[in-house]
Amino acid sequence: MNAKSKIIVIGAGLAGLVLAYRLKQQGKNVTVYEARPRVGGRVQTVLVQNRQGGFSHAELGAQNIMDGGVATNILSLIKELNLELNEDAIPFEGVYYDGEILHQRNALISQILTKHDKPHLTIPQIAANCQNMQEVLTRLQLTPAQEGFLSFLLNGYEGIDPSLLSTNPHNLNTLIHMLSGGLSQVHQVAKSKAVIHRVSLKEGNAKLPQCLADRMGQSIHLNKALSDVQYTHDKKIVLTFKDGSNTQCDSLVLAIPCTVYRDIAFAPEIIASDRLNRIRGMHYGTTTKVLMPIQYPPGTGHWAASPKMGAFFNDDQKLLNLYFTHDDGKILFSERTFQQTHQLLRKAFPSASFNELPFIEVNDLHYVQYSEPAAKSWKKDPYAQGSYSGFDITLENEIDKRVDYNGTIFKPLFAPIEDKIYFIGEHATILDEIGTMEAAVESAERLAKMLSDY
């Protein structure tokens, strides 16, 4: 690969943009094609009118930069681009509503620890004979409220239903920290109290992909959904888009969710059928997010949850983020969902005033203003078809393996093919915390370094 080699990146999410930006810095000939009318992928910032009359920045997708742990890669990039951060530490305190009774989170954890006082020993022993994380929860013999609470937390944080989560060390550690009173390994109990370290961009997380896109100039093409990938006789890669146009390149970088591979035809010489089927088979979260304007006295609890929905405050405490974890694409039109949501909000925030439902489905654009509760179904989104990936049972232990490819570490499933086809994205990270903004950036920075060494 040299300065004359034409490189095409498919996908202008964080991973695709970071890689393209680094390659351009190296003087390489790189072009980005994006199916959406905007950059950012599963980062989407909008403005929602709060009950004080102003507009609050809000995230319909990736929200907390620190869900990626120390987030070295993305924080370094943000500093490099001179972007400003919002940062706070929020007590991990809230309530769980089982449909009849409102349970304090601290009480539920104390009850569980009475029975399982050494989760770091108990969980690995139980998991040794389990096929998935739901089986682990069941064998803990918890009450329905305790199991429902942990099931929601696992689903919400790891991205997919516990029945689809593998019993790999990462998922077990997440459950252990939940049983210890925290949320995960990167959001642990500190000084006898669990705290969520929350960091986002002051002007919304979409500021990062937009800033990267600005530096790419005319090298980004929007509204270009890929449909077909083939080789020519002289090993050029031919890309055909859904609008009928096509182009060629020497190297191809796929910076798209695994779910989207189902909509693209790949010649077997590009990606072998077995490998392609395993990529397409990865599970992604089925999440809908709703931004609900609310007026509520601060300091009386950070979040509330039910078996399939959680509610937590926005950065400025003027919006609730309603997080539905089992969305089949129909939640936005379900009267039952409206009723259950209002029931939880009235129970958990009794003195609050909030906007009435139903929700408004957002446009696929950044910084649009909405005067009503704004909603985004990532399951219905044609260019995501889910929220984010987790360590799921489909690939069993394969997702935990690593290989050395020309001195750079990759997951075997996402290792380069013939120095021509490359894979990046939050699913392709070699970090423990997949499904995060840090994971997406890490995968891109790692590949960019490898290509620069060439």
Automatic annotation (TrEMBL):
Gene3D superfamilies: FAD/NAD(P)-binding domain
Alphabetical keyword list: Auxin biosynthesis, Oxidoreductase
Catalyzed reactions per annotation: L-tryptophan + O2 = indole-3-acetamide + CO2 + H2O
Record InterPro entries: Amino_oxidase, FAD/NAD-bd_sf, Flavin_monoamine_oxidase
SUPFAM superfamilies in the record: FAD/NAD(P)-binding domain
Signal peptide (from-to): none
EC number(s) per entry: 1.13.12.3
A Pfam family it matches: Amino_oxidase
Top-level class of the enzyme under EC nomenclature: oxidoreductase
GO biological process assignments: auxin biosynthetic process
Origin superkingdom: Bacteria
GO molecular function ontology, one term from the record: tryptophan 2-monooxygenase activity
Chain segments annotated as coiled-coil in the UniProt record: none
Listed pathway(s): Plant hormone metabolism; auxin biosynthesis
Residue ranges constituting the Amine oxidase domain according to the UniProt record: 14-448
Family statement drawn from the similarity comment of this UniProt entry: Belongs to the tryptophan 2-monooxygenase family.
Name by which UniProt lists this protein: Tryptophan 2-monooxygenase
Organism: Candidatus Berkiella aquae
Higher taxonomy: Bacteria, Pseudomonadati, Pseudomonadota, Gammaproteobacteria, Candidatus Berkiellales
